[in-house]
């Protein structure tokens, strides 16, 4: 009995396999094909089918519908087989700025700070020293103003009595001059010990006074030159900053010492 059931199941499976795979199609036994061509054949009036694109939704009253941007094709064209895509240049590494700009800006800012300007001058410079200073400053081509001002000093002459051998002799001559009502004064300097009977700006004036004293009984007096004619110079810096003053002093060197630059007298 079991054998008969087994044989029936085996025959049934074999028959289903042959039917489902079309082996019995010649006998008119085959399953209905459900592929796409058969479905198209089963369509009823396919020419009446019309495709419609849905329009934009109606906007509420008073509200304008948003503008619809045209669709763009974002697809990039494929490069041709013969052409290779251009390689993008690699970005250069950023180089840190050198601190030179910061140093220069600090230097410029320091220069913009204006130094105070003061008038300075050094007086009593002899003519030889003045010539050396003039050449040194002119050669340096200084930006600020400077000047060498000449000052001429006339000579001075004296009606002189002396030198006396000692202080006792000096006192005796003083007594004689008092008796003759002649004024006198100390000669000073390297003319001591001696007496001055008058100082004059010219030799002629001194000689005339000596002749008068001779008539009054003065026998040992004579005319001497107390101070020769001399021309001195004053170095003047009318608008000098401390740095410019230091620069001038360096250029002048020993020709300016010990007459250091001092503030100009007021007035």
How do the helices and strands follow one another from N- to C-terminus? HHHEHEEHEEHEEHE
**Percent of residues in β-strands:** 15-25%
Q: How far from one another are the termini?
A: 155 Å
What is the helix fraction of residues, given as a range? Answer: 25-40%
CATH topology title of the domain at 156-227:
Alpha-Beta Plaits
Show unreliable segments: none
Q: DSSP helix count? A: 7
Q: Which structural class matches the secondary elements?
A: alpha+beta
In CATH's first tier, which class of the domain at 156-227 applies? Alpha Beta
Rg, alpha carbons: 64 Å
Features of this protein?
7 helices, alpha+beta, Alpha-Beta Plaits, 267 residues, 4-stranded antiparallel beta sheet, 8 strands
Give a structural overview.
The protein has helices at residues 2-20, 36-41, 100-112, 127-140, 167-179, 203-215, 242-252, and strands at residues 118-125, 147-153, 156-162, 185-186, 194-200, 222-227, 230-240, 262-263. It is α+β, with helices and mostly antiparallel strands and 267 residues long. The longest helix is centred in the first third of the chain and has 19 residues, at 2-20. It is rod-shaped. The N and C termini lie far apart (155 Å).
Element layout with pairings:
Layout: H1 2-20, H2 36-41, H3 100-112, E1 118-125, H4 127-140, E2 147-153, E3 156-162, H5 167-179, E4 185-186, E5 194-200, H6 203-215, E6 222-227, E7 230-240, H7 242-252, E8 262-263
Antiparallel strand pairs: 1-7, 1-8, 2-7, 3-5, 3-6, 4-5
């Amino acid at each position: 009995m079991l054998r008969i059931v087994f044989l029936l199941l085996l025959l049934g499976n074999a028959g289903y396999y042959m039917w489902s795979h079309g082996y019995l199609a010649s006998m008119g036994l085959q399953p209905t094909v459900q592929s796409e061509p058969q479905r198209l054949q089963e369509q009823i009036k396919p020419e009446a089918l019309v495709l419609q694109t849905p329009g934009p939704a109606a906007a509420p009253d008073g509200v304008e519908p948003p503008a619809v941007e045209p669709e763009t094709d974002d697809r990039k064209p494929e490069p041709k087989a013969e052409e290779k895509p251009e390689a993008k240049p690699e970005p250069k590494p950023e180089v840190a700025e050198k601190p030179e700009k910061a140093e220069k800006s600090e230097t410029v800012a320091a220069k913009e700070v204006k130094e105070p300007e003061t008038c300075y001058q050094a007086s009593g410079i002899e003519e030889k020293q003045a010539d050396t200073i003039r050449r040194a400053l002119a050669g340096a081509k200084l930006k600020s103003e400077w000047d060498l001002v000449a000052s001429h000093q006339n000579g001075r002459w004296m009606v002189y009595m002396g030198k006396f051998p000692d202080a006792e002799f000096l006192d005796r001559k003083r007594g004689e001059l008092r008796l003759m009502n002649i004024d006198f004064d100390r000669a000073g300097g390297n003319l001591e010990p001696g007496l001055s009977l008058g100082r004059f700006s010219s030799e002629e004036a001194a000689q005339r006074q000596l002749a008068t004293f001779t008539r009054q009984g003065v026998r040992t007096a004579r005319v001497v030159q107390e101070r020769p004619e001399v021309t001195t110079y004053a170095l003047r810096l009318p608008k000098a900053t401390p740095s410019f003053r230091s620069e001038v002093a360096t250029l002048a060197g020993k020709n300016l010492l010990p007459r250091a630059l001092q503030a100009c007298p007021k007035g």
